[in-house]
């Protein structure tokens, strides 16, 4: 079975074509600047050089057409007929309380996704555009939606309720949803497999990338996670503030003369590691600046580390112990010094850190010593593969 996985943003589209016989990637690529000047398709067939196709790409429909053409191309294509694409898996972001699992996309699902755009005005519309474009350009193909929020739907009210009047929760669904669920599900499932599939397990997953989130996973189910009603809450991120005192918002609106759009932009685009360091939102740049003696860059690193430690402590308490801590995503998989500095503060939990093993990037490695009470792993995430697996399971029926 061949499955095309799509991740649509407002002006971008990422894709991977999987051969599910061995879960290998046949081709992958990226369409950038959809609807803007300088739009381009970068296509990479497995084992071959990247191909760059610069052409006008006014909308998502044209983008899908180009992706299909690239997959079929005589020179750099990997399939002979569009019908070889058995199903398409879409990364659909916000599933609200409706979607606790992935599902086959039909008219009812589309209507519900449209309704949920109120909760995710930036993220859901591009997914909807991508689905509509596929309906047109790959007619008749089965499609599956894999929601970022779904895995966290197992949280109890004690984790998802905010300290706000209950009527507001009822009226607006003002609650914690959590995001990065597909990644937390992928790495926690792998962690449980590594542990030998015990009936009971307590895992803390740290998805640390440009966007970062943490999850407490008990017996394979999320019981708490750090992102909330939106992906702004929790750990400090590249440009997002993460947790802050909510009273800061009206204070800033007053003092800086900001309106709603202004304060949203400040908290989402100008804060976090970028805001503190003044250098960059990218961890590598910040680490380099800190090494050269930039104090603000060092403070950004310290705040990042501390927010992660705060969540590990909180989740260890909520789980009443920890079997395994998992690091994943860009910083989690590659940030050798970040992992070391975090683990150096986890003696109290029983972590015996293995500095030599930690000297690795982007591969699955145990970075705690044999016999460590709490095991610590780097497990590379693979959201696309998770989407392909769900798509195969549902579309194959
Ligand atoms: P992601 O959003 O998962 O792609 O992660 C992006 C983040 O990973 C950026 O902040 C990068 O700086 C960070 N990252 C990637 N490679 C490294 C590395 N070698 N060391 C530290 N951080 C890294």
How large, in whole angstroms, is the Cα Rg? 21 Å
The percent of residues in helical segments reads 25-40%
Strand arrangement in the largest pleated sheet:
5-4-3-2-1-6-8-7
Bound molecules: adenosine monophosphate
The strand count comes to 14
User: H/E series, N to C?
Assistant: EEEEEHEEHHEHHHEEEHHHHHEHHEEH
Assign the structural class, choosing from mainly alpha, mainly beta, alpha/beta, alpha+beta, or little secondary structure. Answer: alpha/beta
Summed up, the helix count is: 14
| Termini gap | 12 Å
Uncertain runs: none
Main sheet properties: 8 strands, mixed
Mean pLDDT: 96
Task: Kindly estimate the percentage of residues that lie in beta strands according to DSSP.
Answer: 15-25%
Shape category = globular
What does this structure look like?
This protein is an alpha/beta fold. Helix content is 37%, strand content 19%. It contains 14 helices and 14 strands. Strands 5-4-3-2-1-6-8-7 form an eight-stranded mixed beta sheet, sandwiched between helices. α1 (60-72) packs across α3 (124-137) and α10 crosses α11. The longest helix has 25 residues, at 295-319. Bound molecules: adenosine monophosphate (AMP).
Strand and helix map with partners:
Layout: E1 2-8, E2 13-19, E3 24-32, E4 40-45, E5 51-54, H1 60-72, E6 87-92, E7 103-104, H2 107-116, H3 124-137, E8 142-147, H4 157-160, H5 166-172, H6 181-194, E9 202-208, E10 212-218, E11 221-225, H7 248-256, H8 260-269, H9 272-277, H10 283-291, H11 295-319, E12 324-328, H12 329-334, H13 336-343, E13 365-366, E14 375-378, H14 383-395
Parallel strand pairs: 1-6, 6-8, 9-12, 12-14
Antiparallel strand pairs: 1-2, 2-3, 3-4, 4-5, 7-8, 9-10, 10-11, 13-14
Helix pairs in contact: 1-3, 10-11
The structure holds adenosine monophosphate.
The site of adenosine monophosphate has 12 residues, from α10 and α12.
């Amino acid at each position: 079975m061949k499955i095309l996985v799509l991740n649509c943003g407002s002006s971008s589209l990422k894709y991977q074509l999987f051969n599910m016989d061995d879960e290998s990637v046949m081709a992958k690529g990226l369409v950038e600047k959809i609807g803007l000047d300088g739009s381009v398709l970068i296509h990479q067939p497995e084992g071959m050089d990247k191909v760059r196709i610069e052409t006008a790409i006014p909308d998502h429909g044209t983008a899908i057409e180009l992706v299909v053409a690239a997959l079929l191309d005589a020179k750099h294509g990997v399939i002979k007929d569009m019908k070889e694409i058995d199903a398409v898996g879409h990364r659909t972001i916000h599933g609200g309380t409706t979607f606790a699992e992935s599902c086959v996309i039909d008219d009812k699902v589309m209507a519900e996704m449209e309704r949920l755009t109120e909760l995710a005005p930036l993220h859901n519309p591009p997914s909807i555009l991508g689905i509509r474009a596929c309906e047109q350009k790959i007619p008749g193909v089965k499609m599956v939606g894999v929601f970022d929020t779904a895995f966290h739907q197992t949280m109890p009210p004690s984790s998802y309720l905010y300290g706000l009047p209950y009527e507001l929760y009822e009226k607006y669904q003002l609650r914690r949803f959590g995001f990065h669920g597909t990644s937390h599900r992928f790495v926690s499932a792998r962690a449980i497999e590594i542990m030998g599939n015990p009936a009971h397990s307590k895992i803390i997953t740290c998805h640390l990338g440009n966007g970062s989130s943490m999850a407490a996973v008990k017996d394979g189910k999320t019981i708490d996670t750090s992102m909330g009603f939106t992906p702004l809450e929790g750990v400090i991120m590249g440009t997002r503030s993460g947790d802050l005192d909510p009273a800061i918002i009206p204070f800033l609106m007053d003092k800086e003369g900001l309106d709603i759009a202004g304060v949203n932009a400040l908290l989402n685009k100008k804060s976090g590691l970028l805001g503190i360091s003044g250098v960059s939102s990218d961890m590598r740049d910040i680490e380099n600046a800190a090494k050269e003696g930039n104090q603000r860059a060092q403070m950004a690193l310290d705040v990042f580390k501390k927010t992660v430690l705060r969540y590990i402590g909180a989740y260890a308490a909520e789980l009443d112990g920890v079997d395994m801590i998992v690091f994943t995503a860009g910083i989690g998989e590659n940030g050798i010094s970040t992992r070391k500095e975090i683990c150096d503060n986890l003696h109290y939990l029983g972590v015996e850190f293995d500095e030599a093993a930690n000297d690795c990037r982007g591969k699955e490695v145990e970075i705690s010593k044999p016999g460590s009470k709490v095991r610590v792993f780097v497990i590379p995430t693979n959201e696309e593969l998770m989407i392909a697996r769900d798509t195969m399971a549902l579309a194959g029926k």
